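Aim 2, interim progress. The first record below pairs a target sequence with its structure tokens.
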Amino acid sequence: MARKPKKQTARSWHRMDLHLHTPASSDYQEPNMTWLDILQAAEARGLDIIGFTDHNTVDGYRRMRGEIEQFELLERLDRLRPEEKKQLAEYRRLLAKILVLPGFEFTATFGFHIIGLFSPETPIRDIEHILLNLNVPSDQLDRGSSTVGATADVLTAYKTIDEAGGLVIAAHVNSSNGVAMRGLNFGGQTKIAYTQDPHLHALEVTDFDQKGRRTTASFFNGSKPEYPRRMHCIQGSDAHRLRRESRDTKNLGIGDRITEVLIDDLSFESLHDLFGDNDFGRTRPYRGGTAQPFDYVQSAREEGASSVQDFHESMTEKGGFLNDVLCDVCAFANTNGGTLYIGASSDVKQNLVGVENAGYARVARQNDPPRFDPARRRSALRH
């Protein structure tokens, strides 16, 4: 049966923190916090999407849903106490505003951490079945411990979660328990496999809001022959408490590392589609307050031209500039793809020129001759 085309809607930016723990994790630092406390803290930080990712368990999300279902049962029986009625109303208000995704932070072989997130429509038992298939012992399924003995390997975990319809995110890849294996002088082929696997949707990094060639996102931008797949990068708080303990601690609170995503609507499906898209400008770190949004063009200019990006101040036929652009398009189409910035020089000291007729440029791009295969090309006009 043919799939119906998705209705086109205006995309908008949404803020998310996909790496949150709850009291269901054994190392949660404020065990007396409630799920309403967590949702209210997420609202206070301006979050639109959050993920419950307790260690090797989905018990945190299940307990929240269980509390709501209990309130709803009492409501149907007309036995809700005033305080319970207020709590149920608050749950309904917050869950109408914030998309809460069920999931887990799985501990794979050798201690690598992998986040699996699912649609709220996914039965909790199905998610638990995934954890059992990944060799989490049944007697530890609700303990929320990051230490669960011999489990499945990283690549098996990627494949299992992806094929079950989940989002697969390698947790804090550039720090402890991360698959990028920072600080280790071995494991080259393993690192390539763990960060380039087709079942992996995104990398969670701790330096997403930093610039320069030495950042994790720059390392995985597709410019290295041994790492040809450009990876979507996000940031998350990995919060084990509501609020950051102090400015000098690494114990972050909810929303202390926020990612903004440009999606069609507030749904798991739109988020999943984003990570399957080759437009890497739809994800950016959120800086909070009155700070300017992360400037991808400026960041790219600071990195300079490479095998996956180039800059052209003009695309006019006069002077041969259009031919230069087309040459780059061909080069990207026949390698691993890339991004073209039109109307900008790679020299950060020069002002942006821009494109006089951006609409015409887009039409011309859409009408490229067949030799520029759009299915293989990941170049993008930015202005």
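The second target in this work package is listed in the same format:
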Amino acid sequence: MVSLREILGDLARVFVTFVTWLYCLPLALFVVLWVLVGDRMWPLSVIGSFLPYLFAPVLLLLGMGLLTKAWHALRFSLPLALVALVAYGPLFIPHLPTAAAAESLRVVTLNVNQYNRDLSRVEDWLRQQHPDVAFLQEIPMGMLLPITYTLGEEYPYITAYQPQGQKFASVLLSRFPLVTDFEMEASTPVYSLLRYAIRWNGQLVALYGVDTAPPLGAVRFDLPLMNNRIGHYVMGYDPTNRDTALHNLLKAIQNEPLPMIVLGDFGLSDQSSLYGQYAAVLGDSYREAGYGLGSTWPLAVTDDLMGTLPAIFPALVRVDYIWHSAHFKAAQAAVGPALGSDHLPVVAQLGWVIAPDS
């Protein structure tokens, strides 16, 4: 006679197998399409931006399959779990402590957000971090003079740029002399695509400041519950202008003769193919010395364009970067706290690996 325990066990295995198939089969199909097609189609590009999180339920299903001995379910969950382990497991291996080089730069990037009306937290955090160079994007024009005045004693070299037609500015704060600066030709709408040079310990170092316009166009479908940042991102995703500007920047970087640091809000997920093109020629400070996914966007703030998100909503996508040429190596890198923006700041300690000739 079959016991109640055996009946419940069979039902549990059937349930776990069904749920596993229901989730893992579409995910496996997406992974195949991602490998074959990549982010050349907008639905794949949008979903791929959140790809690490799509694997999280697989780990839960794997555990449920082992617990209930649903061996058929494991045929689907185990391969995908191995894919996740290979792709994202190394990101969660702590880096061995690395002493900062005797000559090193502490660098910060932060998209302040044009709707941020209280920059005191930004100022306090910058003083705590004590960076040598900070690139702040989308500072409301009404806040520009106050923040540059209060930080002017610590940063004697400050330059600001206001994108045409915008009510915010990008600001570079530096403890070292600024030698040159200019706006790069973007050919497409972009907030900031700037090149500076600083003289640091007798060496010229190029600084590229980036703040791309959001990869958004007309909303394709107006669906209920999508009047928020994620909804606009999904339904109005259009990376054409962003990608054109970033390809132009990449060409400039490849021809740059100086040691360089490239930092800012790229509006670009690290799951994208364009990220891979940057990683082929530059070092990613956070990947070298950070821990975890390093997600920086979107936090819950209210603005006039994209609505709001629940206050508990975490950053899901990594779009803010501190890149560097082979002359540098990151000894430390971290994502900072929420400072009233929809982005989190990124900080990195960069030391010389190959010092150029004076």
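The chain has two domains: 4-92, 104-352. This observation will shape the mutagenesis plan for the next reporting period.
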